[in-house]
Specification:
- With 95 residues, this protein is mainly α.
- The protein has one domain (8-77).
- The chain has helices at residues 9-24, 28-34, 38-51, 56-60, 64-77.
- The chain is globular, with a radius of gyration of 12 Å.
- The two termini are 21 Å apart.
Length: 95
């Protein structure tokens, strides 16, 4: 179970900015094809961060390649019930 109450306002704002930046990396076709929504990316980042801390400030300032790897890897491998990342995926910006 994800303990949403432990998420700080600062972390939530960073996750929003990270998700927004990642979303801008995608084409309209990719967004539609995968049915992606900005708030879903934000929630996935927050859930992963709550389960295993991520250097959110570092990720926000990362290269597009590193940001994409982490955000879309989280999106692909997260267990949305627990926040755990499956199949050995580890964000490059893990703490």
């Amino acid at each position: 179970m994800i303990k949403w109450e432990k998420l700080s306002r600062e972390s939530a704002e960073l996750a929003h900015n990270i998700a927004f930046r990642a979303f801008k990396l995608l084409t309209k076709q990719e967004v539609e094809q995968h049915g992606l929504k900005l708030h879903e990316l934000e929630m996935d980042i927050c859930a992963a961060h709550l389960r295993s801390p991520i250097n959110l400030e570092g990720l926000l300032s990362a290269t597009d390649s590193d940001l994409g790897h982490d955000v879309f890897g989280i999106r692909r491998f997260i267990d949305r019930d627990t926040g755990f990342l499956k199949h050995g995926f580890s964000p490059r910006w893990s703490k």
